[in-house]
Amino acid sequence: MTNPVTTQQSGTIPAQPGPREVTVTDDVTPGAWPAGKPGSKQAAAADSPAPGGTPGPRQAENTAAQGGKPGPGAAGDAVRPGPGSGVAFFPGPVPGAVIPGAGPSGKPGARPTVKLRDADPDDPPRYAPEWLELREPADAAARAHDLLDPLRIRLANLPGKSGVVIHDVGCGTGSMGRWLAPRLDGAQHWVLHDRDPYLLHFAAVASPRSAADGSRVTVETRRGDIARLTPDALRGASLVTASALLDVLTHEEIDTFAAACTGAGCPALLTLSVAGRVELTPSHPLDAEIAQAFNDHQRHDGLLGPDAVTAAAEAFSAHGATVRLHPSPWRLGPEQAALTEQWLRGWVGAAVEERPELRAEADVYLTNRLAACAAGELRVTVHHIDLLALSRPVGGAS
Asked: Looking at the whole model, is its pTM more than 0.85?
């Protein structure tokens, strides 16, 4: 039987088959996010194995072309089930169109988001589920497995714990949980944080059901703002995670985040932050100029863009944490042509938004790059960095 999950914002979305209770908490006071407990009545319990396939989505890369028009995926469009997930996702983009939410929103430096047509004007902006779904397999392939062993050791040494509580900040549609939960042993309770109730809903119904050893995985959702995160909000947490988040934060927000994690004695696994380096094969004389203009675009309004990982490592270190960094590049070839196309449109579009004098050359450049992509002749490496911060334990933990 399929149990529907209903919220005021997004209507009924079919949940995964099998017994499952999902708690979606709307309008929670930012900064007041208590840690849930495995097996609590707030948890979303999953008692049967996950269906096959990867259920799409996740946090958006800061890219996209100018002039992208809302297309399939806005409210009112027909929905289709995500692959193997039981959750409804929107149709794919029209060929040649830019997925809304995948790139610069009118204001340079603003977070790339999209409003649904039927949304209340006061609702927070939303990342496009189509873009998050498109990038999820590349994200999963890129994340640094080498950081998992030290993390597992830390989690295994937690005192008096029958399971772990993991807070996923800026969770989008929950791809971090879908990647990490099946790689960790033991009972897990995930607390999914995002400003957008629409994406939180997707995250809840597409959450994983079991850990690596078959232990139960439960989930709850919380709305809130990372800028108000405090150590009290993370009391009882075993781990904080985030994906593709640091580069859309300011210095102040990163320091607040680091202080909250270290103040709670909680390790943090922060993946897929842009590094500011891109390699395209075959190369082109305009590659470096487009890359520099794109990086400058990401630094508007105090956002850190490609400087974020360095700032985060310094902030966590200043608060006493041990920091490990590891590369996590996207490696895009013919099999990822749809993602490469969207990334290219966004990368070049942001560069032109930053430096309008590039437009004439960039239009020709983009046309040629898209043709090479469609012919299977283009390969792209987009460099990211994953960060693991092991804070000093609080309360005598080892």
From this structure: no
